[in-house]
Amino acid sequence: MSDGRVEMTPALAAYLDALAAPSPLVRRVTGENRGDPGAVMMTHPELGRLLAVLVTASGGRRVLEIGTYLGISATWMAEALRDGGRLDTLEADPHRATRAERWFAAAGLADRVHVMRGPAGATLPGLPDGAYDLCYIDADKPAYPAYLEHAVRLVRAGGFIVADNVLYDGEVVAERPGEHAEALRAFTRAAIDHPRLSTAVLAVGDGVTVSVVRG
Fold first, then answer.
1. Residue 84 belongs to what H/E stretch?
2. pTM
């Protein structure tokens, strides 16, 4: 047993990427978006595989995603849904929402993925309590603490809340972290201290919190 961490060498990163084994659909949507200005924010295969596993573990009936972006993370999760399952994904940018809808239709996922347009802060209050097995948060960072409170209400007991970018490229430990890093620090602390959550922080990609909602 060791209390150290393995150094992430290029060879080890390539090994882990290969083990993540993206599906043909995930490889396709990733490849089609390589030239996007925000391609650096595409869902890493290691994170995608984790999301798919957690969707399966949750039962995979109803999933909520806050931040559709290019639809890559939604593709990972949609493929892990059980028969008849549905993923609701929230997107504030109308152009990205349309682009994602076109992708889901072309990929044969339109029956499983519903894009909800508009700011998440306006959409979330209207969603029903305990309706989801899993909520994945990957959107505007200053709003993460508010999204957490919505997620605790929206995810059933025993379900999961997952949030990306909680290490923010290491800025969360900077001497003078910026607004986004400060919000992520506050979010992570709130997730760990929340009386209805059991939370772990994982060094997957840019850092991920995985929380289980307590009864």
1. none
2. 0.94
Q: What is the DSSP letter of 143?
A: G
Phi (first) and psi of residue 160, to 5 degrees: -115, 145
Question: How many CB atoms within 10 Å of residue 58?
Answer: 25
Exposed (0-12), middle (13-18) or buried (19+): which is 56, by Cβ within 10 Å?
Answer: middle
- Contact yes or no for 135/197 (Cβ under 8 A): no
- Residues forming a β-bridge with 163: 137, 209
Distance of CA 118 to the CA centre of its chain: 18
Q: Using pLDDT thresholds of 50, 70 and 90, give the confidence band for residue 130.
A: very high
List the one residue out of 44, 12, 69 whose CA is nearest residue 204. 44
Q: Which residues pair with 106 in a beta bridge?
A: none
Cα distances (Å, whole numbers) of residue 86 to 4, 110, 131, 159, 198: 40, 10, 11, 15, 25
For residue 173, give both structure tokens. Answer: 């430990």
Domains of the chain: 10-213 (3.40.50.150)
Q: Is the pLDDT of residue 94 over 60?
A: yes
Check pLDDT > 70 for residue 97.
yes
Range scoring the smallest mean pLDDT among 3-7, 8-12, 132-136, 172-176: 3-7
Split at pLDDT 50, 70, 90, the class of 38 is low
Nearest to 25 by CA among 110, 93, 90, 95: 110
Distance CA 81, CA 83 (A): 7
